[in-house]
Amino acid sequence: MITSKVDTLIFNASYLITVNKENQVHKNYSIAITNGQITHIAPTEELAHLEAKNKFDAHGKILAPGLINTHTHLAMSLLRGWAEGVDLQGFLDRVWTAESLTMNPENVELGTRLGAVESLLAGTTTTLDMYLFPDAAHKGAVSAGIRHISGPIFLDFPGLDGLQWEQRIELAKNWQQVLSEIGGPDVPTFLMPHATYTLSPSHLKQVSELAQQMNAGISIHISENLSENDQIQKKYSKTPTALLESSGVLQSQTIVGHGVHLTDDDIKILAKFHAAIAHCPGSNLKLGSGIADIKKYQDSNLAVTLGTDGCSSSNDLDMWSVIRLAANLYSERNGAENLKADQIFRMATIEAAKALGLEDSIGSIEVGKQADLILIDLNKPHLIPLHNIFAQLVFAVGRADVSDVWVDGKHVVAASKSTLVEFSQLSAQVEKVSIRLHEHSKK
Ligand SMILES: [Zn+2]
């Protein structure tokens, strides 16, 4: 009989989705957590004698690993609905103007806190977030309790943070120090060169060398739409992916945002370097950028993960709608008989953890991993009966069904409310920024 003491016992979960190698799903299971780590996974009766500081009854609920969003710009939640009826290039024009009026460190911290709270309430426990003032962004995100991977952003021009190139390099060199001062759940180091249309090949090369020195990953936008590809082809006689290869970027663990229009050679290059795609179907469809052929990528051993993109192009940070869109688009393109719902769910969990280099710590429910967990309340008309659990997760569950969230064993969402951020206060602060933006834009 097990008699040891644990920090938290989540007991009696009606279903436990492990997303482990065997993709096991257990019924009537419990798990125990100590120091943020999963220590026991067993049938409820076997853990009944554990002494726990916190006990949580998960009857009627699905216990699953937290979702991982591999491409977003959380602070852009402040610009939700600001750039409508435009394609990518029109979107960038409109958003960059609004950003210059709104985004300073204080507002980036606020916008990222808002984005992090929205993400957590929807069951996303880890985000790969690219934005200017990444230290402010990280503070905002950590204050909400999310596992937040941010990193210094690189552009050829000063941008609204006003940083010159050398200052960007300096910030990157100090980034690990910045992360440890701010604290929060452990995250890997990432550098974030924005795109091949905003960085010269020589600057890309510098970032890639720095990333290798720092053992850092890289997050970058690639081949989001056809005019981006045309622009790069005209300028360098290469595809954006070929440019990444020749500048050495792919030597580091790379997550490519969007990757909608990749040639067969591009796919081979990305697969050869073990890069991963952050497939953002919501944003891609809304901006009319195109639909990535993810089956083709996967058939060529190119890993596919899922992202929302920022709120000014996808309008929300709901990974469930991304999961459902990815599945529906997959069926439409490849035939419903080829769709495996469990594989789509893996893209939002363990596949993303692998792409981030975090497969030993998150992405599935296994002993020894960090407790990044969500509970989904099945006591809803749209979630009964339950004949096929992965079909339910992919095609029926929505963010309002997420009742509780733990990150690193910390209970950051309880009964669908953030335990760390007071919503009325957050809402009042966001409203103030929004009023200022409207006033400025009328001038
Ligand atoms: Zn993006």
Give an overview of the whole structure.
- There is one protein chain.
- By secondary structure, the protein is α/β, with parallel strands linked by helices.
- The chain folds into 2 domains: 4-65 and 369-418, Urease, subunit C, domain 1 (Roll); 67-355, Metal-dependent hydrolases (TIM Barrel, Alpha-Beta Barrel).
- It has helices spanning 88-102, 105-121, 134-144, 165-173, 175-182, 201-214, 226-236, 240-246, 264-272, 281-286, 294-299, 311-314, 319-334, 341-347, 350-355, 389-395, 423-442, and strands at 5-17, 25-34, 37-43, 51-57, 61-65, 67-72, 124-129, 147-149, 153-154, 190-193, 217-222, 254-258, 276-279, 303-306, 373-377, 402-407, 410-414, 417-418.
- Strands 1, 2, 3, 4, 5, 15, 16, 17 and 18 form a 9-stranded mixed beta sheet that branches. It has a 6-stranded parallel beta sheet with strand order 9-10-11-12-13-14.
- α9 links the parallel β12 (254-258) and β13 (276-279).
- α2 runs parallel beside α3.
- The structure holds zinc ion.
- Zinc ion binds at residues 71, 73, 221, 257, 309-310.
